[in-house]
Amino acid sequence: TQLLEQSPQFLSIQEGENLTVYCNSSSVFSSLQWYRQEPGEGPVLLVTVVTGGEVKKLKRLTFQFGDARKDSSLHITAAQPGDTGLYLCAGLPSGTYKYIFGTGTRLKVLA
Amino acid sequence: DSGVTQTPKHLITATGQRVTLRCSPRSGDLSVYWYQQSLDQGLQFLIHYYNGEERAKGNILERFSAQQFPDLHSELNLSSLELGDSALYFCASSVLGGLSTDTQYFGPGTRLTVL
Lengths: 111, 115
Known about the structure:
Distance between the termini of chain B: 31 Å
Strand content of chain A: over 45%
Structural class of chain A: mainly beta
Helix content of chain A: under 10%
Oligomer: heterodimer
Structural class of chain B: mainly beta
Largest sheet of chain A: 6 strands, mixed
Largest sheet of chain B: 7 strands, mixed
Shape of chain B: globular
Number of helices of chain B: 0
Order of helices and strands of chain B: EEEEEEEEEEE
Distance between the termini of chain A: 40 Å
Shape of chain A: globular
Number of helices of chain A: 0
Strand content of chain B: over 45%
Number of strands of chain B: 11
Largest interface: A-B, 24 and 30 residues
């Protein structure tokens, strides 16, 4: 069974702090996506990484795809209350059409 | 607004019943995906259709079935409903499906409650 494990599961931090969320697997992925989901809504895509070692930045968010394309990280600098939400990683295992979603990281940023 | 529409938004029904969830993909997207999200859990992939053909199947129960029609909209049919089927059901669409650079756009979901 192919799994994507995210850590931590829950994170509560103060505004202005930095944080990193990890997404790990033993499988190789042809691509990996990060989504943010608000309660009762569908996930919204933040970024797609495709190349091993790739780093993408989206304002205060930095995404990295592992060299072996088995893991990824999301780093948020100077977190703000508006960053609060459920962060999900999702991967497309090489050679398949079945997207796998991680277990999710629930982030709460306190003002 | 992702451009993916799902109806109905909420559905309340009883055990043993059958329901149909509907999804209209973004204009131009050929692939439709269905996911189930139970309380405090991640998204579970159910099934993927590409241009009317089933492309991949996940952990979809035999009581569940789906299809994609010639106009590319899709329906997910859930029958002999059980309490454990209560969940959010999401549809997503993408241009092609299965390419590493393809992007899934999610609809707002249908919240199913089985009493």
